[in-house]
Write a structure and sequence with these properties.
The protein is an alpha/beta fold. The protein is about 40% helix and about 25% strand. The protein has a domain at about 90-160. It has helices at about 45-55, 75-80, 95-105, 115-125, 130, 145-155, 175-190, 200-205, 225-230, 230-240; strands spanning about 5-15, 20-30, 35-40, 60-65, 65-70, 80-85, 160-165, 195, 210-215, 215-225. It has a six-stranded mixed β-sheet with strand order 6-7-8-3-9-10, with helices on both faces. α3 (about 95-105) packs parallel to α6.
Length: about 240
């Protein structure tokens, strides 16, 4: 028997005002998997995440752990275990790293202080640099450290689905490798991740399943390793690997 996907999206339409960006997108993510959505600028990748999070209105069906959630508010989706790390990272720049992290756990109500401290310790183990900079204002961090903080803050709420919007955007190559190593560690720990990326090669290297989104519709889908070997994907998104 095939297990019910943790996330199942059918015929999703979303956009801004009268401008429809997504036209009938269907994707799914199994629990404990990394699912990558790749595509060019303007394809609708960020719109997809914002619609799934409830930031944008949408039409179609969004089921999370078997429950229809498309009519739920953003806050209700968070309470059910959906978290989004936006492309902007949306940190509190003047607040210390530790306070930014603690705010990530406040959405989960009635969490004992000891449990909050345990979660904070887990984040510091995953991101040692954040521990070193816990008293430093978030706005003074490097780009890579801000991305780590944004991911760490989302993880403080122990989400069942972590959605990452362009986590490698604007980062140096060495930092990008570190971010993707962290994604791999999260997958090894059983996390379910929906990853939006322009860096298709890096995304498919860590993903189990992948979708190619073009002009608001799914153009290709399948196991990530299979798509990474598809001539069209290689030509359009991956380029030729260096010898």
């Amino acid at each position: 028997m095939t297990a019910t996907p943790l996330l199942k999206v059918d015929a999703l339409h979303a956009g801004y005002g009268r401008a429809e960006v997504l036209s009938g997108v269907s994707i799914e993510a199994a629990a404990g998997s990394v699912v990558a959505v790749v595509g060019p600028n303007g394809a609708g990748k960020s719109t997809l995440l914002n619609a799934l999070m409830g930031v944008l209105p949408s039409r179609g069906e969004i089921r999370f752990d078997g429950e229809a959630v498309q009519r739920l508010s953003l806050e209700q989706r968070v309470q059910r275990g959906i978290a989004l790390v936006p492309e902007t990272r949306a940190l509190f720049a003047t607040m210390p790293v530790a306070d930014n992290l603690l705010l990530g756990g406040y959405r989960q109500r009635r969490t004992p202080r000891a449990e909050q401290a345990a979660r904070l310790d887990e984040i510091y183990q995953l991101f040692p640099r954040l521990h070193e900079r816990q008293a430093q204002a978030a706005g003074t961090l490097s780009g890579g450290e801000r991305q780590m903080l944004a991911i760490g803050r989302a993880l403080m709420g122990r989400p069942r689905l972590l959605m990452l919007d362009e986590p490698s955007l604007g980062l140096a190559p060495l930092v990008v490798k570190e971010i993707f190593r962290i994604i791999e560690r999260l997958r090894e720990g059983g996390a379910t991740i929906l990853l939006i990326e322009q860096n298709a090669r890096a995304a498919m290297a860590v993903a189990d399943q992948a979708y190619v989104l073009e002009t608001g519709a799914i153009a290709l889908s399948g196991p990530a390793a299979q798509l990474a070997a598809d001539p069209r994907v290689i030509e359009t998104y991956l380029g030729r690997a260096k010898a």
